[in-house]
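Because discrete structure vocabularies remain unfamiliar, we turn briefly to a single example record, giving the amino acid sequence and backbone structure tokens:
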Amino acid sequence: QVRVVESGGALAQPGGPLKLSCVASGFTFSRATMIWARRVPGQGLELVSTITPDSNDPYYSDSVKGRFTISRDNAKKTVYLQMNSLKPEDTGLYYCTNGWSWGQGTQVTVSS
């Protein structure tokens, strides 16, 4: 059974850091491009970042470029999203996906 499970969401201070994790199972993780997306209140689903199997040439949306870093550990079947310099507009439900299977999401709230 294909499964992705996100964790790490929390209440964070503006300007602070937060690191999300996503553990995958049920498919060949090392061959999969992995994706972080978020649903912001009142808006649609936004593609945040992607990482290819060999971790080359990651993609970042303009809204997070320079602040977020995506990485992966193929041995642990885990993809990470390091978020720095958080802004209130980063608040949302963050999802991990391989493109066809989605987790339940992990809530990130940025507020003082």
Summary: The first strand starts at residue 3 and ends at 7.
